[in-house]
Amino acid sequence: MSSPQLSGILPSAVSYLALIPAKTIPFAWNLITAGYIEQSIYGVVISTIGLLFIGKLLEPIWGSREFLKFIFVVNFLTSVCVFTTAISLYYITRQELYLYLPISGFEGVLAGFLVGIKQIIPDQELSLLKIKAKWLPSLALLVSVVLSFITTESASYLPTLIFGTYIGWIYLRYWQTKPETKLRGDPSDEFAFYTFFPEFLRPVIAPVSTLFERMICGKRSETADETRGYTLGGNVLPGSDPIEASRRREKGARALEERLAERLAAARRTEETQNDASENV
């Protein structure tokens, strides 16, 4: 079943704001605006719920400025990657579909949010799904890949989700500034690229990801002082302290517990109010 479309209501808005590779030059602004316009009612609902619920967890930990910066960077770079992929596919296949298919939606940023959840509370078990939070990005991609074989609409979202996940990881791994320490990134082993894959695939993925890690971050020191993390020219790279990574995860877990406690207290107050009202009646 296809989702209700908004593009029929605002066709001109989609034409100018969505990412249409053939029109990106000169309409380069759609690399930014594409992430903030939805073409279906379902997309609006999912994006709104995702932003409200996940944002309430991440924003207090990252800070408002860093939270907005994450959204902007992940959205923009995801659009750039999708645009580059579409142009490449056109030159390979010569199918104009890749040039004129309008692509938009907040899904790339939502995928990046899931990577943030993986980083902050990796071992927190989600009661509804019965899985740990660290598997949320991988599970979302797996479901998206499966659905892409079922419906063409799902297939159109797949590149955005893949690049959103990857750019979100790149940002948190290397670029994010931590307000409390002014350090950058999170090169801890628990947040390495191969941790997105099941255990049986890691022996294949780990050597390749480690090679890229060393190219970008330098190499790990092998002396007793090297337990702090990555080094480059004998200096510890900022943000590579595993103690700092552990502190950030603990902070995330505390924030989640506080959110759950607030919701539980609110639910109890509502229940007490209803009981009092029924007794008065």
TrEMBL record:
<feature type="transmembrane region" description="Helical">
    <location>
        <begin position="40"/>
        <end position="58"/>
    </location>
</feature>
<protein>
    <recommendedName>
        <fullName>Rhomboid-like protein 19</fullName>
    </recommendedName>
</protein>
<feature type="transmembrane region" description="Helical">
    <location>
        <begin position="70"/>
        <end position="92"/>
    </location>
</feature>
<keyword id="KW-0812">Transmembrane</keyword>
<dbReference type="Pfam" id="PF08551">
    <property type="entry name" value="DUF1751"/>
</dbReference>
<dbReference type="InterPro" id="IPR013861">
    <property type="entry name" value="TMEM115/Pdh1/Rbl19"/>
</dbReference>
<feature type="transmembrane region" description="Helical">
    <location>
        <begin position="98"/>
        <end position="121"/>
    </location>
</feature>
<feature type="region of interest" description="Disordered">
    <location>
        <begin position="228"/>
        <end position="252"/>
    </location>
</feature>
<feature type="transmembrane region" description="Helical">
    <location>
        <begin position="156"/>
        <end position="174"/>
    </location>
</feature>
<dbReference type="InterPro" id="IPR035952">
    <property type="entry name" value="Rhomboid-like_sf"/>
</dbReference>
<keyword id="KW-1133">Transmembrane helix</keyword>
<keyword id="KW-0472">Membrane</keyword>
